[in-house]
From TrEMBL:
GO terms for molecular function: ATP binding; ATP hydrolysis activity. NCBIfam families: sufC. It comes from Halothiobacillus diazotrophicus. The keyword Iron-sulfur does not apply. This is Fe-S cluster assembly ATPase SufC. CDD domains: ABC_FeS_Assembly. It comes from the Bacteria. Residues 2-246 form the ABC transporter domain. Keywords: ATP-binding, Nucleotide-binding.
Amino acid sequence: MLNINNLHAKIGDKPILRGINFTVNPGEVHAIMGPNGSGKSTLCQVLGGREGYEITEGSVEFDGKDLLELSTEERAVAGLLLGFQHPVEIPGVKNIYLLKEAINAQRAAQGLEEMDTFAFMKRIKELVKTMGMDDAFLHRGVNAGFSGGEKKRNEILQMLLLQPKLALLDETDSGLDIDALKVVSEGINLLRGADRGIVLVTHYQRLLSYVEPDFVHILYKGRIIKSGDKSLALQLEAEGYQDFLEAAS
Ligand code: ADP
Ligand code: MG
Ligand code: MG
């Protein structure tokens, strides 16, 4: 589904990604770990099509398409959806309005008509409940005054509504207390499916004890220096990064 081949990217003059190779097949959950400043967020941003990055080498194929040729919107329509490490605040726009816009934009791109308001409300209320949120949050400004945990719940709610083929979640666990972490993890587990790929960026093993990844990759200085199964995350938690980083340099 996603095939990243020798991807290099820079910000200004600074090379950040220095030859990333990795493949996500439908149904797989991949965790990307690594020390601060390794390029994890940059990789997510580049895949999501955010501006400010120059791709200097390599290719990315998504669902048979050349991903790097597509705009951010085209990527979302193609089914690649990026959550936010720091979800944006749009205080003047009600959350429910943005969610409705998002689903209808997706449907329009698929040649479907707008979702019936009743069906939309029913679905959204189910999801609000699933994510342990309050209905009132639907009528608040997008992310305005949301706690870190509420933003993350909202991010997963959006993913559950839009059902992307590939979900990219950058530090979905940062700033969550243990209860919020459980709810967000349950949401991610609901998102899991035979047709869907999930890429989770995380600093900690904690999330991965709730959402068991099929693969774990360590990103360091813009390269994947080691890949393994979920036991790699446990090993990292126990031993820290140092041995891996030394072995790689
Ligand atoms: P991670 O998510 O793994 O912590 P990032 O992708 O955020 O790492 O950052 C990778 C490197 O790119 C870091 O050295 C960081 O300082 C640098 N970087 C990130 N964003 C920018 C930017 N907008 N301008 C300049 N350098 C940046
Ligand atoms: Mg960081
Ligand atoms: Mg980051």
